[in-house]
Design brief:
The complex is a heterodimer of chains A (about 625) and B (about 425). In chain A, the strands form four sheets. A three-stranded antiparallel β-sheet of chain A has the order 3-5-4. A two-stranded antiparallel ribbon of chain A has the order 1-2. Chain A has about 625 residues and is mainly alpha-helical. Helix content of chain A is about 60%, strand content about 5%. Among the domains of chain A are: about 30 residues, no CATH class; about 140 residues, no CATH class; about 45 residues, no CATH class; about 180 residues, no CATH class. Chain A starts with a helix and ends in an 8-residue tail after the last helix. Chain B has about 425 residues and is of the alpha/beta class. Chain B has a single domain, classed as Alkaline Phosphatase, subunit A (3-Layer(aba) Sandwich). Helices cover about 35% and strands about 15% of the residues of chain B. Classes of the chains: A mainly alpha (about 625), B alpha/beta (about 425). Chains A and B meet through helix 18, helix 29, helix 30, helix 33 and helix 34 of A and helix 7, strand 7, helix 9 and helix 10 of B.
């Protein structure tokens, strides 16, 4: 086998001299990708390089995975991750438990209505008397619960619970790790938040339909998809933004035209009469594309907002019933004739669009309805400032908190040349020596999500209650899906590590390994092929290697050994642990003394086993909470 | 930094060691430590900063209700101070400015001259991006993106004595706020109760783990983890002394059950524990009211209710310690003078802020507000910034915390205070 490889590379080297450049790359083709990782030149062994690669593009290596990837070939593994088509049968089986994740936005609105909507419906249907509600809270709650059950309605929080659960499960168990890592990256980039009431119930479908399918696709496609998603339209308010000089529908509906003219003459009476909202237009430039130093002005923001007037949500379910009547009585062809665009949940409402000419970044946008916005977003997606901004953000995510400018420049070049092909930008990044440089290895600080999921993967834990993990992730400072600001979580160690969150990380390690996180089961012995280390010291050496592969555990071992060698201390820990540990045998109340004796014996054996596993858990927990484990 | 570490070691504060190895009884170590501490704390004053993230509409919080231009610009959002306005009427402060009716709690403090308001406050940088404006305000350098430290962190460095305690600067947030970034020790915690290595029912195990972690972090090569780790364990040891779980506020005070209320309650605890808290930080969210802002009721009213009630609960809880404490609010910018088409307001320029304390020049709306005619507005749309936030921030810390180095606090700034603090 080795000989064979040598033979191939000899051919490749020979070809290099006689063939044009394109042929050289074909020697490194994996599927459609030209991948060649220069880790050897950076002084990394194949195992070290595999560990680095896995630390960057997965939520953490599983036991033995570093060797597997090294054997398979790093480039080949990466190509398969880019394709993201590895079978995920066992994960898909687990995900069946989360039935709400199959629902469309319209179905979500019907089945998981907001509390206020439920109340209004219940009052309207006569199931609740609004006045009695105030006097008797319990009766009100019971009546409401009864009404919801009868009508097949479920509380909104259950939707978010399923959403979070399936995210934890995917991250922990999918074979297509890169796709999930990129999904998290882009969600954070195009952040929306469950904290914002009107956008909350559309967040699950946003990740499912808008982010995940585009996570390794074209940046421009993803940008357009986010702009049209209900979650984003609500989160950054564009759904409500309407033009000052909406043209009306002159040809078809002269009556409406005159109504519009009157509206302009006198101030709008109704609160929802309309108006410009520039929130989305600003953030799409500052946060999604150009970056804050990307060279746009307040004027550009206002003009872009005018272009995007009328970009709104197609009436969903019983929501927005008034608009529903106005729009849904027309079929799509009728809508189209009036300049409307209806795609999925998105609606371009031509009658709310500012009909004037606009100029953004020096480019003039002539009156062209829906297409103006598409052109604007296309321009932003392929702007040089966007290429730099996105490339830098990717490099910060995957290389280091302060990536070298040379690397960012290479990536930006690929971004422009490939028209925002995300895979190609990633390939440029990983093909670059900067990615493998010594000062990039273990330079990133794990986010709380990465720490928690990484531990689960690294210890091969069985998760049956993912929300318990999420509670810890939240406590460590990363309430995923609830980050309020459109910036998303800052991606740097300084943000994650502070005195409070650091203690939570240590406590997380201890809780995880000692089985104190309900529904998350760790079998430390199985991790070591069911060998039980003879002493605490042996456990330390063994589990340092298992949990921190490809790292030098000498310092950790040296620091901890004296502590673990104190027999008095070890005994204390074990005794205390035995007292609180759950009994392995059920108490037997019968009078038969043989049974009782037998039980006692079993209990003693169980206690001894417990003692050993308590010390093992303690050692493993300390490793998970150690400074070395916080880095990747 | 070295002095502080030296102090902690010399002070016998290594309580884990005490508990584990059975050396000196803990109470003796504690007594020694607290004596040493009280000698090292020169400053007994505490500044509490509250960041209202999202940009508070200063014109709705404190409305120049005699301004006809504002009334015209906000047909559905303007409230009047007329007595017959019922519940929706503004609280008339001085015949020109009216406090939002949901901030009744502030009225008495204003009349008692403990509460000052600065109107027209903001940043000289005209950005209307939340992220940038917060970044500039919190770094204290409105024209420099490259300032890595926060102004409150620099203030902590100027306190004039080496921090003898990890609680010199505490943010009651789960993540470190930008204002606290920097080289001087600062702490971020969302709950004082979580501040320990925990193994339920197994104190020996917890002690072993704590000792192990403390050693590992003390020796790690990563600067960030090493420094933070050290600070974590110092803080744990100090908090072990009191029963933070069963805190009872003084004077029958009830804090609102909100994020801000909980943060301020814990700040009050730290002040009363006398652990050397000098700079505290808390956050209030949800001020980005683009949509259906409401008037006497609604989103904005709920926000200011929480803000004023949380602050006043904190204030009454302090009791006799009020003399040592000043509370100051801040927000990244204000909102457009005109209401937008969706019952809200968009990103603007100047806003207002609140300063509460016994050495505050209270009972007055400071600053300068021109009539809101278009020609007086910034870019023809926004309340103009007439008071640089740095002139207020620096005056408050200079007078209250007795800091004297504005060059370090606000490097590119040469302005002066406007008299929000009593001379």
């Amino acid at each position: 086998m080795k000989k064979y490889v040598k033979y191939i590379s000899a051919i490749a080297v020979a070809l290099l001299f006689v063939m044009p450049l394109s042929a050289f790359f074909s020697a490194n083709n994996y599927g459609a990708y030209a991948i060649k990782f220069p880790y050897a030149a950076a002084g990394l062994s194949k195992q070290q390089a595999a560990a680095h690669l896995l630390s960057r593009f997965t939520y953490g290596a599983t036991p033995g995975q570093i060797d597997e990837v090294a054997n398979e070939g790093l480039e080949k593994w990466f190509a398969a991750q880019l394709d993201a088509k590895l079978p995920d049968d066992s994960l898909n089986q687990m995900l069946k438990a989360y039935d709400a994740m199959e629902l469309s936005n319209a179905e979500v609105v019907e089945q998981y209505p907001k509390n206020g909507q439920v109340l209004r419906r219940a009052v309207k249907d006569g199931a609740l008397n609004k006045d009695s509600v105030k006097t008797d809270r319990k009766q009100y709650r019971d009546a409401l619960a009864d009404y919801m059950e009868k009508n097949g309605l479920k509380p909104e929080r259950e939707l978010f619970r399923q959403f979070i659960n399936q995210k934890v499960m995917r991250a922990a168990y999918t074979n297509n790790q890169l796709q999930e890592v990129m999904t998290s990256f882009w969600f954070n980039h195009f952040n929306v938040s469950i904290t914002k009431g009107n956008c909350a119930q559309f967040v699950p479908a946003y990740e499912r339909d808008v982010i995940r399918p585009n996570a390794l696709g074209s940046f421009g496609d993803m940008l357009l998809a986010t702009a049209q998603a209900p979650a984003m339209l609500y989160y950054l308010d564009n759904f409500s933004s309407t033009g000052e000089k909406a043209p009306g529908m002159t040809n078809q509906r002269p009556k409406r035209m005159s109504a519009d003219t009157t509206m302009m003459a006198t101030p709008p009476k109704k609160k929802k009469a309309g108006g410009l909202n520039e929130n989305y237009a600003r953030e799409v430039m500052e946060l999604h594309t150009l970056g804050v130093d990307g060279g746009y002005t307040q004027k550009d923001v206002t003009e872009a907002a005018r272009i995007l007037t009328g970009w709104t949500i197609y009436p969903l379910g019983q929501y927005n019933a008034q608009a529903k009547n106005a729009v849904t009585k027309l079929n799509d062809q009728q809508l189209e004739r009036r300049g409307f665009v209806h795609e999925g949940d998105f609606l371009f409402a031509a009658n709310k669009h500012d009909g004037g000419t606009k100029t953004v970044l020096g480019k003039q946008f002539k009156t062209n309805g829906y297409q103006e916005g598409v052109d604007l977003l296309g321009m932003l997606a392929n702007h040089p400032s966007t290429a730099k901004f996105i490339s830098r953000k990717l490099a910060v995510r995957f290389v280091s908190d302060n990536p070298p400018q040379t690397l960012v420049d290479k990536m930006a070049k690929t971004f422009l040349a490939s028209k925002g092909n995300i895979k190609q930008v990633l390939i440029t990044m990983v093909n670059a020596p900067e990615f493998w440089a010594k000062d990039a290895v273990r330079e990133k600080t794990k986010s709380p999500f990465e720490l928690a999921i990484g531990s689960v993967r690294g210890l091969d834990a069985t998760v049956t209650q993912p929300y318990q993990l999420y509670n810890w992730i939240n406590k460590m400072g990363e309430k995923v899906y609830y980050y309020q600001a459109p910036t998303g979580f800052p991606d740097k160690g300084q943000f994650w590590i502070n005195t409070g969150s650091l203690l939570s990380r240590m406590n997380f390690g201890l809780a995880l390994t000692s089985g104190r996180i309900p529904g998350v089961k760790v079998n430390l012995k199985a991790l070591n092929n069911n060998h039980e280390p003879e002493s605490a010291k042996a456990a330390l050496a063994t589990y340092c290697k298992l949990i921190l592969p490809e790292r030098d555990p000498a310092a950790t071992i040296k620091r901890l050994t004296p502590l673990l060698n104190d027999p008095q201390l070890v005994e204390k820990v074990n005794n205390a642990s035995a007292k609180v540990a759950p009994k392995t045998t059920d108490a037997i109340t019968g009078a038969d003394s043989t049974i009782r004796r037998e039980t006692k014996k079993q209990n003693r054996a169980a206690m001894q086993a417990n003692n050993n596993s308590a010390m093992l858990a303690q050692v493993a927990g300390i490793i998970i909470g150690s400074p070395e484990y916080q880095r990747r | 930094m070295l002095t502080r570490r030296g102090f902690l070691k010399a002070g016998g504060l290594s309580l884990f060691g005490v508990g584990l190895m059975g050396g000196i009884p803990a109470f003796i170590a504690e007594a020694a430590a607290s004596e040493k501490r009280s000698r090292l704390y020169k400053g007994k004053k505490t500044l509490v900063c509250i960041f209202q993230r999202g940009a508070m509409d200063g014109l709705m919080a404190v409305t120049p209700f005699t301004d006809e231009y504002l009334k015209k610009a906000r047909p559905s959002l303007f409230m009047s101070a007329a007595k017959n306005g019922g519940n929706g009427a503004l609280i008339d402060l001085d015949g020109h400015f009216g406090l939002h009716p949901a901030m009744r709690g502030f009225e008495r403090a204003f009349r008692d001259k403990q509460l000052a308001i600065v109107h027209g406050i903001g940043s000289p940088n005209t950005t209307r991006s939340h992220f940038d404006a917060q970044d500039y305000m919190e770094s204290g350098t409105p024209f420099s993106k490259s300032t890595s430290s926060g102004w409150l962190n620099r203030a902590a460095g100027l306190l004039g004595h080496d921090a003898a305690t990890p609680f010199t600067a505490v943010s009651l947030t789960s993540a470190m706020p930008r204002s606290f970034y920097g080289d001087n020790p600062a702490l971020a915690i969302s709950s004082l109760q979580d501040f320990a290595i925990q193994m339920r029912g197994n104190p020996a195990g917890a002690n072993l783990a704590a000792k192990s972690f403390e050693d590992l972090y003390d020796q790690t090569a990563s600067g960030l983890l090493q420094q933070t780790g050290r600070e974590s364990f110092e803080a744990v040891k100090m908090l072990q002394k009191t029963d933070v779980k069963n805190y009872k506020p003084a004077n029958g005070v009830n804090y609102p059950n909100s994020a801000l209320g909980n943060s301020l309650k814990q700040i009050a605890q730290l002040i009363k524990m006398n652990v050397g808290l000098e700079i505290a930080f808390a956050e209030s969210n949800g001020w980005d009211t683009h949509f259906n802002q409401g008037t006497a009721n609604g989103v904005f009213a709920r926000n200011v209710t929480d803000l004023s009630e949380s602050i006043m609960a904190f204030w009454h809880d302090l009791g006799t310690l009020q003399d040592d404490v000043v509370v100051m609010s801040m927000t990244e910018f204000g909102r457009t003078v005109h209401e937008n088409g969706t019952g809200g307001t968009d990103h603007g320029r100047a806003s207002c802020n609140f300063i509460l304390g016994n050495d505050v020049a209270g009972g007055k709306v400071h600053g300068k507000l021109d009539m809101l005619a278009v020609e007086n507005l910034e870019d023809g749309r926004d309340l103009a910034v007439t008071t640089d936030f740095r002139s207020v921030f620096s005056e408050v810390v200079d007078k209250h915390l007795l800091l004297k180095n504005d060059k370090i606090l606000f490097p590119d700034w040469k302005g002066r205070g406007i008299g929000v603090m009593n001379a």
